[in-house]
Design brief:
Elements (H helix, E strand, L loop, with lengths): L2 E4 L6 E2 L9 H6 L15 E2 L3 H8 L4 E6 L7 H14 L7 E3 L10 E4 L12 E4 L8 H11 L9
Parallel strand pairs: 1-4, 1-6, 4-5, 6-7
Antiparallel strand pairs: 2-3
Helix pairs in contact: 2-4
Length: 156
C-alpha cells in the first residue's frame, strides 16, 4: 500500500482560526509569534474538505501526519496529537511524525503547502497544497485517485 503524509498547518488545519479562541490579552502578549501560545495548536479548525479527504484517502493508502512543531512551545507537540485525535479519532493513532527534516522521511506522497523543512526535497512526490494545480482538497483527492487508478468512493 502506498503512503501519504499530510502536513498540518495550512493543509489539515487553518492556522489563524485558533485566534478567535484566544483572549485579547494573550494575543497582545504573543503578537508576532502566536505559535508560542500554549494550547494554540489544539484550537485550530480543520481546513474545508480536509476531514472528508483524509477519511477517503485512508481507505486506499497508509496515512500519516508529517508536521513540524515550534521548539519554543513544548505544548505544540502534544497539541497536534490532541487535534488529530479530536478530528480523526484513531485514523492517525501512532501515525504522527514531528520533525524539522521532512526530506529524511520515505514515502510516496507528501501533501504540504510549503517547501520548508525539507518538504521540497521529499523523496516521494510533493503535492503542494494551495498551489494553482492543487488549490483545495477536492483537487488533491481527484489527482491521487486518477494517478493510482482509484475509482471515487471505491472501498478497500
Amino acid at each position: 500500500m502506498k503512503t501519504v503524509f499530510f502536513d498540518m498547518d495550512g493543509v489539515l488545519v487553518e492556522y489563524n482560526s485558533a485566534l478567535k479562541y484566544i483572549d485579547e490579552t494573550t494575543r497582545k502578549e504573543y503578537e508576532g509569534h502566536y505559535q508560542d501560545i500554549p494550547g494554540f495548536f489544539s484550537m485550530m479548525d480543520p481546513m474545508p474538505g480536509a476531514i472528508e479527504a483524509v477519511k477517503s484517502l485512508s481507505q486506499h493508502y497508509e496515512v500519516f501526519i508529517l508536521s513540524t512543531a515550534p521548539w519554543k512551545n513544548p505544548s505544540a507537540w502534544g497539541d497536534k496529537r490532541i487535534w488529530a485525535e479530536k478530528h480523526f479519532g484513531d485514523t492517525f493513532f501512532k501515525r504522527i511524525i514531528l520533525t524539522h527534516r521532512k526530506d529524511i522521511i520515505n514515502g510516496d506522497y507528501l501533501i504540504d503547502d510549503s517547501g520548508w523543512n525539507g518538504a521540497s526535497s521529499f523523496k516521494g512526490e510533493w503535492i503542494k497544497f494551495g498551489s494553482g494545480e492543487f488549490p483545495n482538497w477536492k483537487s488533491v483527492v481527484s489527482y491521487l485517485q486518477s494517478k493510482d487508478h482509484i475509482l471515487p468512493n471505491e472501498e478497500k
